[in-house]
Amino acid sequence: MEQYVIKGGIPLVGEVEIAGAKNAALPIISAAIMTDEVVTLENLPDVNDINVLLEAIEGIGARVDRIDRHTVKINGSTIQDCSVEYECIKKIRASYYLLGALLGKYNNAEVPLPGGCNIGSRPIDQHLKGFRAIGAQVSIEHGTIIAKCDHMVGAHIFMDIVSVGATINIMMAASRAQGRTIIENAAKEPHVVDVANFLNSMGADIKGAGTDVIRIKGVSSFHGCNYMIVPDMIEAGTYMMAAAATKGDVIIKNVIPKHLEAITAKLLEIGCEVEESDDSVRVVAAKRLNRTHVKTQPYPGFPTDMQPQMSVVLALAAGTSIVTESIFENRFKYVDELTRMGANIKVEGNTAIIDGVPNFTGARISSPDLRAGAALVIAGLEADGFTVIDDIVYIQRGYEDFEGKLRGLGAEIERVTSEREIDKFELRIG
Ligand code: EPZ
């Protein structure tokens, strides 16, 4: 089992390049199989979730040619099967995007229901409600979602809750339905907009993505295209928080600063300097930061995917902060680990009350999920002494070369697989 070993206490300084957005790339790869022509995707992040999904679409017959680390060509004309194997996709929840894609293209999809998740219950009722509204019969049999219809017809759909996944899934299927679909109370995240832009590049007619009403005029076929995935706002935000926690000075490149506004606003509020340019942000934290309150919200609010990283920064800030998690109920699992590093945090329901401490001390801890894992790495980078983090497989699902990029900023961090390697690292760094 791979682990990270970190010697903390070094302010991060330098420049880091951000990869393409995982949460845009996952639906875009799924949607790419909706045409029989070749689709070239650039700026794909090289992370586990993406690689698993590429294998899953190969598993149903699509052709996937890797051009380089960040570019693939996908050809969906060779798909023979609308039934996705459980083994292929049990590791990633975003497999549900294959439902919208296969239903849209073939009027038929069978995808195993994604299993439980570390960040809380993840119902997909809104996805299914949308598919039913455009004419699909949907049933769950033996753990598999089966969606089929003779033909789909556009509908007016009001989402009961704001859901990124449901908005994207319905957008994909409805873009091949007959007539118009309107999605009200749609999610507005940049990755929703990116998927709409991609579908439009393949010939779809989608307007309003990025607002809460999306209008889709169904088309009968899609064509191939070249598309570049949008930069990952959560990866960028994670390095912004790493700079803040370590009192560093980091330029985060290849970002869209507009997407980072909620994160930037909180960092400014607690005393960081944040300089924006066209496609980069620089975060400088020269002194101890101050407390604030944070509540996670759908975009453009503060993202739930940044809550653990922000909480680590606040756990080091002067004063008492309150962090409210309003999207997923189980996203404070890192708190017990952080407490072992000296943090003073009390969780009550969906709220964490954080009394800032001047610094953490290194400990042996374990990563409970992707963003929490990244947050614990940030804690380790700040802490006095050595931190060892287990279960980094979660982190590798969503961060490309996390340790390499951090080393580029001066961090002492290594990926190891044995106690011997940990001892060697500790001896070498001293
Ligand atoms: C996406 O998950 C992201 N995943 C998550 O990223 C992210 O945390 C989340 O959006 C919120 O921004 C991907 O893009 C692959 P939702 P998604 O549907 O689409 C409830 C990461 O770390 N809900 O917007 O599954 C749901 O329980 C991750 O990269 C329903 O009740 O999230 C939640 O409370 C993890 N019924 C809320 O809506 C539904 O049918 C928002 O979830 C769907 C969702």
Description:
It contains 15 helices and 23 strands. The chain has 430 residues and is of the alpha+beta class. The chain folds into two domains: 216 residues, UDP-n-acetylglucosamine1-carboxyvinyl-transferase, Chain, CATH 3.65.10; 207 residues, UDP-n-acetylglucosamine1-carboxyvinyl-transferase, Chain. A four-stranded mixed β-sheet has the order 21-22-1-23, with helices on both faces. The radius of gyration is 22 Å and the shape is globular. It starts with a strand and ends with a helix. The structure holds ligand EPZ. Ligand EPZ binds next to helix 1, helix 5, helix 6 and helix 12.
In short:
The chain is of the alpha+beta class and 430 residues long.
Q: Can you give keywords for this protein?
A:
430 residues, alpha+beta, UDP-n-acetylglucosamine1-carboxyvinyl-transferase, Chain, 2 domains, 15 helices, globular, binds ligand EPZ
Low-confidence stretches: none
Class from helix and strand fractions: alpha+beta
The CATH architecture assignment of the largest domain turns out to be Alpha-beta prism
Average pLDDT over all residues:
96
Report, as a whole number of angstroms, the end-to-end distance.
Answer: 24 Å
| Tally of discrete structural domains | 2
Rg on CA atoms, Å: 22 Å
Which of globular, elongated, flat, extended, rod-shaped describes the shape? Answer: globular
**SS summary, helix count:** 15
Bound molecules: ligand EPZ
Strand content: 15-25%
Total beta strand runs: 23
Level-1 CATH class name of the largest domain: Alpha Beta
